[in-house]
């Protein structure tokens, strides 16, 4: 804890801002049922009620409380994005490390498979697959994780290739250590810093990707609250000078900026550069 606090004290103001934004969103996501004044799907009034009174941010196109939907949207959108990012990292990092350690035909096979997937635009590919298999939350998470794991594979393989060439890895090979020992005990700890920074970037991309799919109608499905679909459902208000639809868009933008501030700080630390 002392080392962590010492590290935090050296963080720039932008990193502190990012950490506070992440902490706020995490709290809102975890405490959504307590913070929200109404149920997630409850119709509480007529559609498009103005701000104020019993409805802090008015109501949406079906008469549901916008503040409640924003709060529950944090839990749903961020939670699904986090699960998809973790799964993508498990797939991409494992495949990347295997390709670097085994090399040869395994490396070529995995690399060419990744090249094929990356050659197809992600949004178009996701729309096609989700149209075929359906838009349930498990299928949404799986499709996004597989597509995003290709980017993580590239980073993990590149980092691991540099580590595999070092003397301590060759020494471990000569000692007779197995494949998983090399990956878990030799490569993974030394690849930790750049991959943690990549995790933050990937989370932002997955988060925005889910919001884009929801805006197009193939992401998180109604009546589940989601920021992307909230923008779509209430977009007509912009024509009347009401910026309520911009609230979920602003929530998406703020979290993205906050995470990127923290990622920039982590990349600076990992690079070993001094101010």
Class from helix and strand fractions: mainly alpha
What is the CATH class designation? Mainly Alpha
Number of E strands: 0
Radius of gyration: 22 Å
N-to-C terminal Cα separation, in Å?
24 Å
N to C succession of SSEs: HHHHHHHHHHHH
Q: How would a crystallographer describe the biggest sheet? A: none
Core attributes:
mainly alpha, MetI-like fold, 72% helix
Description:
The protein is mainly alpha-helical and 275 residues long. The protein has one domain (14-271): MetI-like (MetI-like fold), CATH 1.10.3720. The protein has twelve helices and no strands. Helix 4 crosses helix 9 (179-187), helix 7 runs antiparallel to helix 10 (192-215) and helix 10 (192-215) runs antiparallel to helix 12 (246-271). The radius of gyration is 22 Å and the shape is globular. The two termini are 24 Å apart. The model has no long low-confidence stretch (mean pLDDT 85).
Chain-wise SSE layout:
Layout: H1 2-9, H2 13-30, H3 32-35, H4 66-102, H5 104-119, H6 122-133, H7 137-164, H8 167-174, H9 179-187, H10 192-215, H11 227-233, H12 246-271
Helix pairs in contact: 2-4, 2-12, 4-5, 4-7, 4-9, 4-10, 5-7, 6-7, 7-10, 10-11, 10-12, 11-12
Give a summary of the structure in a few sentences:
This protein is mainly α and 275 residues long. The protein has helices spanning 2-9, 13-30, 32-35, 66-102, 104-119, 122-133, 137-164, 167-174, 179-187, 192-215, 227-233, 246-271.
């Amino acid at each position: 804890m002392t080392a962590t606090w010492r590290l935090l004290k050296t963080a720039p103001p932008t990193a502190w801002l990012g950490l506070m934004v992440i902490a706020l969103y995490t709290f809102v996501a975890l405490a959504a049922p307590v913070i929200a004044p109404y149920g997630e799907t409850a119709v509480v009034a007529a559609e498009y009620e103005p701000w104020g009174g019993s409805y802090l941010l008015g109501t949406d196109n079906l008469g549901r409380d916008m503040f409640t939907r924003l709060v529950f949207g944090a839990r749903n959108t961020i939670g699904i994005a986090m699960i998809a990012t973790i799964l993508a990292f498990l797939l991409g990092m494992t495949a990347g490390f295997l390709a670097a350690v085994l090399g040869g035909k395994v490396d070529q096979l995995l690399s060419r498979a990744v090249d094929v997937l990356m050659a197809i635009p992600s949004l178009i590919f996701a729309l096609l697959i989700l149209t075929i298999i359906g838009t349930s939350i498990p299928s949404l998470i799986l499709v996004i994780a597989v597509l995003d794991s290709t980017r993580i594979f590239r980073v993990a393989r590149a980092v691991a290739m540099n580590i595999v060439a070092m003397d301590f890895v060759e020494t471990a090979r000569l000692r007779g250590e197995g494949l998983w020992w090399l990956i878990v005990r030799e490569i993974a700890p030394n690849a930790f810093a750049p991959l943690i920074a990549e995790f933050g970037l990937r989370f932002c991309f997955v988060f925005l990707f889910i919001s884009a799919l929801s805006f197009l109608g193939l992401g998180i499905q109604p009546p589940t609250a989601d920021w992307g679909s909230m923008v779509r459902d209430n977009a007509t208000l912009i024509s009347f000078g009401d910026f309520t639809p911009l609230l979920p868009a602003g929530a998406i933008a703020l979290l993205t900026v906050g995470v990127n501030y923290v990622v920039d700080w982590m990349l600076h630390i990992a690079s070993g550069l001094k101010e």
